[in-house]
Design a protein that fits this description.
Chain A: Belongs to the CcmD/CycX/HelD family. Chain A: Its main location: membrane. Chain A: Pfam families: CcmD (PF04995). The complex is a heterotrimer of chains A (about 80), B (about 250) and C (about 160). Chain A is built from two helices and no strands. Chain A is an all-alpha fold and about 80 residues long. Chain A has a domain of about 25 residues. The radius of gyration of chain A is 32 Å and the shape is rod-shaped. Classes of the chains: A mainly alpha (about 80), B mainly alpha (about 250), C alpha+beta (about 160). Chains B and C meet through helix 3 and helix 6 of B and helix 1, strand 6 and helix 4 of C.
């Protein structure tokens, strides 16, 4: 340990404010960057999932109407 | 070799390998970084001249070093984008540019705060500080240009050219302290010589540099995964991955 | 390699080389402006303009610091071990200011070759060491001086 006590560690012979503000900025920004990146990934996955569900819903509707139409057309073509 | 290269270009392959790497990168990065910082802050001896203010070095040097090496990696990826049109290279540039911006800002900020008690000024327009400020603007420019162009392919090309044009700034930052008279001192770590500080100072510094490197690797993987998910959302494997993750 | 890729690669390489040459020549042409300060050799050779705000940098010469007892005025000599320039400054000096330490002073050069500074910054080198090591080194170098001094007296 390079310091005698915890208060000496905080004060750092008068250089404390400089040293600690640097470390505070470093941790704040790095943790912020990490959290932001994690959230962005989560949001991206969520957006993809919603897109698929939306599409799946539309596909079901289309499939229902398409089958009916093809059924009709089959009849017509055979005439 | 070429097969590996093509594999590397496959977003699906990258997704799998990065998912396996990421826990190690995160754990190793945090461990090394914290070890370096705690050692540097509390246990390393103070400097004979600057006293305790020099302890800022344990984050100033890693952020400055990473800021430059991230840019070099981006330049390599830019060449790959322009020549081989590899999608993953473009994803890399786009994903890490904000990380580079934050690292450059941190190195400038910590440098300014360190400069006040040692030099007697927050800022001076010497070659090292000015070229580092240009690096900050380059990162900002890359991000802005990428956002300004809607078409993915033209954005990739324009950004790659900008990154390559900016890469001349890197040797200027590196050698500014040797080519010109600057207030900033020469590098502590040199490739060819022993570091100009005793081991109980440079070992923690090296630890925090390595730790920040690993942490950057984690951030890069994470952000690239996000970008890949968004770009490849119409493919089968992304759909499988997303829907499987919910269950 | 595919011929198209080869062509693209050559274009990229030409771009980089051209850019490097352009920037290299520009920085070479501007080198005096990029230099933060004039060193004492340049000043005593008359390369620095008189009565224009410039910076001068070098080492504070050992034993040259004269402090005015009534005010904050300080006079010292800045040297690069080749030439030295007298500097006059009124104000608070940075903590790191000491004889044998590097400084960068901002101010004007007057007609008599004296540099009148309005700001003095401390410049330190890339060598970091614990105080005990620094003390030991200083003692060792003083010891050497003494040893060589005594050796000389013995030989006389």
């Amino acid at each position: 340990m390079a310091f005698d006590s915890f208060s000496a560690f905080m004060v750092m012979e008068g250089h404390g404010p400089y040293v600690w503000s640097c470390y505070a900025a470093f941790f704040l920004l790095m943790i912020g960057l990490m959290v932001w990146s994690l959230r962005r990934r989560k949001a991206a996955i969520e957006a993809c999932r919603r897109g698929y569900e939306f599409q799946a819903g539309r596909n079901d509707q289309q499939a229902a109407s398409a089958s009916a139409a093809s059924f009709n057309r089959v009849k017509v073509s055979q005439d | 070799m070429w097969q590996f290269f093509h594999k590397l270009g496959s977003p699906k392959w990258f997704f799998g390998i990065s998912a396996r790497l990421m826990p190690w990168l995160l754990a190793g990065g945090i461990l090394l970084l914290m070890a370096g910082i705690v050692w540097g802050l509390a246990f390393a001896p103070k400097d004979y001249l600057q006293g305790n203010s020099y302890r800022i070095i344990f984050i100033h040097v890693p952020t400055a070093f990473l800021a430059q090496s991230v840019y070099v990696m981006m330049a390599v990826a830019a060449v790959v984008t322009l020549v081989w049109r590899m999608k993953l290279a473009d994803v890399f540039v786009k994903s890490v540019a904000p990380v580079g911006l934050v690292l450059t800002f941190l190195s400038l900020f910590t440098g300014a705060v360190w400069g006040k008690p040692t030099w007697g000024t927050w800022w001076v327009w010497d070659a090292r500080l000015t070229s580092m400020l240009i690096l900050l603007f380059l990162y900002g420019g890359v991000i802005a240009l990428d956002r300004a162009i809607n078409d993915e392919k033209s954005a990739a090309r324009a950004v790659s050219v900008l990154v390559l044009v900016g890469v001349v700034n890197i040797p200027i930052i590196q050698y500014s302290v040797e080519w010109w008279n600057t207030l900033h001192q020469p590098s502590t770590f040199k490739l060819t010589e022993k570091p100009s500080m005793p081991a109980e100072m440079w070992v923690p510094l090296l630890l925090s540099v390595l730790g920040l490197y690993l942490l950057f690797g984690w951030l890069a993987c994470l952000r690239m995964q996000t970008e890949i998910l968004l770009r490849e959302q119409r493919t089968r494997w992304v759909k499988d991955y997303v829907l499987a993750g919910r269950g | 390699m595919h011929p198209i890729r080869k062509k693209r690669l050559t274009i990229v390489l030409f771009l980089l080389v051209g850019l490097a040459i352009a920037v290299g020549l520009t920085t070479y042409a501007l080198r005096q402006n990029i230099n933060l300060f004039y060193d004492p050799t340049q000043i005593s050779a008359g390369e620095a303009p008189v009565d224009v705000r410039i910076r001068a940098g070098g080492m504070v010469e050992e034993g040259s610091v004269l402090r005015d007892p009534d005010s904050l005025m300080v006079e010292f000599k800045v040297t690069d071990f080749n030439a030295s320039v007298p500097v006059q400054y009124t104000g608070i000096l940075p903590d790191l200011f000491a004889e044998g330490q590097g400084v960068v002073a901002m101010g004007r050069l007057d007609e008599n070759g004296r540099f009148v500074a309005d700001q003095v910054l401390a410049k330190h080198d890339e060598n970091y060491m614990p105080p005990e090591v620094a003390d030991a080194l200083e003692k060792a170098s003083k010891g050497q001086h003494k040893a060589s001094g005594s050796a000389e007296t013995v030989s006389y």
